[in-house]
Amino acid sequence: MVTAISDEMFSGEAITDPYSYYGRIRDEDPVHWNEKYELWVITRHDDLVWMTRHHELFSSEFWSRDKRSPYPAIDESDLGLYQFMREFFMKWFIQHDRPVHTDQRKVVHKWFNPASMETWRPMVQQVVKDMLDEADEDGRMDVMKDFATPLPLFVIAQMMGMPFEDRKFIRSMAEKLLFIGRGEADRMQPLTDGIKELMEYLSPLVAQKVDLPVDENDLLSVLASGEKTGALTRDEVIADAILLLLAGHETTINLICNGTLAFTQHPDQWKLLKEAPFQDPDTVVRATEECLRYDPPVKSIQRIASEDVEMGGKLLKEGDRIRWFMSSANRDPAKHENPDTFDISRWPNTHVAFGSGIHHCLGATLARMEAQEAFKALAGRYDSISLETDEYEYQPSVTFRSLKSLPVSLK
Amino acid sequence: MPRKVRVSVDLDICVGNAMCETYAPKVFVLNDDRQSTVADPNADTFENIMEAAQDCPVSAITVIDDETGESLFP
Ligand code: HEM
Ligand code: HEM
Ligand code: SF4
Q1: If DSSP codes are grouped into helix, strand and coil, which group holds residue A273?
Q2: What is the pLDDT along chain A (411 residues), one digit of tens a residue?
Q3: A97 neighbors A55 (Cβ within 8 angstroms)
Q4: What range defines the domain where residue A99 resides?
Q5: Across the interface, which of B15, B55, B59 has its CB nearest the CB of A360?
Q6: In a domain, A4, yes or no
Q7: Nearest CA in chain A to B36
Q8: Of B12, B22, B34, the CB nearest to A53
Q9: All domains of chain B, ordered by start, with CATH?
Q10: Quick one: three-class SS letters along A172-191?
Q11: A177 Cβ closer than 6 Å to some ligand 1 atom
C-alpha cells in the first residue's frame, strides 16, 4: 500500500531518521507543500543551491516578515516573550537582506578569513588537549557535555577577549539558549532570560571597547568598531556579539557529536582515520567534510518568498514560508555517489552544511578547524571509542540535528 | 605602472558568497549560477583584488603576477 507523505515533521520517525523522511520527500515530491505547518519543504541539492543564491527572491528577514505564530506552538502566556525575542533577533545581520546585510557582515567578515583563523589553531589545540586530559582521568566522557559543548564556547570567548573567570557564567547562559531549537512549549522563558543576562553582561564590556582604539586581535573590539564607522548601532553590536558567541554553539556541538557517533558506528572509517599518517592534513580535512555531509549539524533553514516564484513545477507565492533541508540535499543521489555511505575519503565533497550564497556561514572556517582538531586529537589518543548505550535520542527540532547526550568509554 | 595580475576563480569551490564582488566589483562579476567569474583582472586596484582573494571565505580565488608568474595568492 502506498501511504501519503506525513506532514508531521516532529514525529519520532522524522526526528530519529530525517534521512528516510526527507529523502522520501526528495524522491517523490521534491518541492513539497507541508499542509500542517504551512510551509514549503525544499529537498534537492540543486534547488537548495539555486534558492540560497537568489537572495532577492527568497528573503532572510523571516523574523520581521513572518507574522504567523511560532511553531511548534508555545504557551499562550509566553507570546509577549516571543515578541521580545523577535525584536531582538531582527537586529542581527543574519536576519537582513542586502544592502544592509553586506555593510554589517563586512565589519567582521575579514576577521573570519581563512588566514586569520589559522593563527588561532594552536589555541584551539590547547583547549582540546585540556579537555581530553580531564576526560582521560575517568576513562569515559559524555561527548556532548564534557567535550563538544565547552569547546566552541571557550574558543570564541577567548577570541572575544573575555576574562577567564567569566566562562562559567557564559556557559550557564549558553545552556539556557540551548532551548533555541527545541520544541518545548515553555521554551521562551529560559531563552529570553539567557539573552537578557547576556545583554547585561556585554553592555559594559562593549561600552569600554568602543572608547578604545581597535585591537585587531580582539573580536569584540572589532565589532565595536562597527559603531564608530556607523555600520552598526550599539544595540546591534551587542546583538551581533551574542550571535557570534552562540552561533557556533549548537552547530559545532552537533558536528563534533554527530561525527564522533558516525565513527563509532563505522569502525572501518575510524581505522582509516587512525592509520592515516598522523600529521596528514588531507585525511583529517576530508573526514571533517564527510561528517558535515553525512549527518549535518543544521537540518534546515528558513526563508520567506519575496515574490511569486516557480520551482520544480510548483508556484511559491509571495510571503510563503519556506524551509530548505540540507539533511536531504547532502544525501541527494543526483549530487553524491552512494550518498548514504559514510566515506571519509570522499573528495571533492560539495555538501551544503554551511548553506550557500551571500549568507554562507561566516564561521565555517572556525567550525572546520575546531572539528578537525577534535577528530585529530581523538584519533591520536584513543584506540577505540565505544558507546556506553545503544539508546541515543535526538532533540525534537527541525532546525538542529542534536543528540541529547553521547556517553562513551575511551580506550 | 600598476602591477598587472592574472586572476581566476575555482568554480568547484566558490559558494557564491559574493564578498569578492563587494571588494572589487569591476573584477569579480557573478554569473547566472551566482558564482564569481573574472571580468577584467586589472579593472581595480591591486590592493582591492588581494583583499578579495584573502577574504574569500573558501579561498577560491587565485592571483598570479602577470609578468613574473609568481603566485600572489594563495
Ligand atoms: C546566537 C546564536 C543563535 C541564537 C541565540 C538563536 C536563537 C534562535 C531562537 C530563539 C529561535 C526561535 C526558536 C523558537 O521559536 O523556538 C531561532 C530559530 C531559528 N534559528 Fe537561530 N539562533 C542562533 C543561531 C542560529 C544560526 C547560526 C542559524 C543558522 C545556522 C540559526 C537558524 C535558525 C533557524 C532556521 C530558526 C528557525 C527556527 C525554528 O522555528 O525551527 N540560528 N533561533
Ligand atoms: C558546524 C558548525 C556550523 C554550521 C553547520 C553552521 C551552519 C550555518 C548555516 C547553514 C548558515 C546559513 C544560514 C542562512 O543561509 O540563513 C550559517 C550562517 C551563519 N553562521 Fe554558521 N554554522 C556553524 C558554525 C558557525 C560558527 C562557529 C559561527 C561563528 C562563530 C557561525 C556564524 C554564522 C553566522 C554569523 C551566519 C550568518 C551569515 C550571514 O547571514 O551572512 N557559524 N551557518
Ligand atoms: S568570495 Fe569566494 S566564494 Fe564568494 S563569490 Fe567570491 S570567489 Fe566565490
Answers
A1: helix
A2: 467 888 999 888 999 999 999 999 999 999 999 999 999 999 999 999 999 999 888 876 655 455 555 554 444 545 555 555 555 555 554 445 554 556 556 667 777 888 889 999 999 999 999 889 988 888 899 998 889 988 888 888 888 888 777 877 876 776 666 665 555 656 667 777 777 888 888 888 888 888 888 787 788 888 888 788 777 788 878 888 887 777 777 789 999 999 999 999 999 999 999 988 665 668 999 999 999 999 999 999 989 898 999 999 999 999 899 999 999 999 999 999 999 999 999 988 999 999 998 888 888 999 999 999 999 999 999 999 999 988 889 988 888 899 988 999 998
A3: yes
A4: 12-410
A5: B15
A6: no
A7: A357
A8: B34
A9: 5-73 (3.30.70.20)
A10: HHHHHHCCCCCCCCCCHHHH
A11: yes
Chain A residue at shortest CA distance from B55 = A113
Inside any domain, residue A2? no
Q: Is A398 helix (H, G, I), strand (E, B) or coil?
A: coil
Residue A151 lies in a domain: yes
Q: Give A115→chain B minimum CA distance, Å.
A: 7
| Cell of residue A241, nine digits | 556579539
Helix (H, G, I), strand (E, B) or coil at B35: coil
Cα of A367 from ligand 2 centre, angstroms: 9
Protein residue with its CA nearest to atom 37 in ligand 2: A94
Quick one: cell of B5?
Answer: 595580475
The answer to whether the CB of A70 is under 6 A from ligand 1 is yes
Domain count, chain A: 1
Q: C-alpha distances in angstroms, A22 versus A14, A25, A327, B2?
A: 8, 5, 7, 54
The answer to whether residues A392 and A261 touch, using CB atoms and an 8 Å cutoff, is yes
Q: How far apart are CA A266 and CA A274, in angstroms?
A: 13
Q: Which of A102, A113, A357 comes nearest B55 by C-beta?
A: A113
Q: Which atom of ligand 3 is nearest to the CA of B28?
A: 6
pTM of the entire predicted model:
0.86
**Could you tell me which residues are beta bridge partners of residue A324?**
A42, A301
Instruction: Report the residue among B11, B21, B36, B62 best suited for mutation to probe ligand 3: largest number of ligand atoms under 8 A from its CB.
Output: B36
Residue A58 belongs to domain with CATH number:
1.10.630.10
Q: What is the CA radius of gyration of chain B?
A: 11
**Atom of ligand 1 at shortest distance to CA of A183?**
16
Q: Does B33 touch chain A (CB under 8 A)?
A: yes
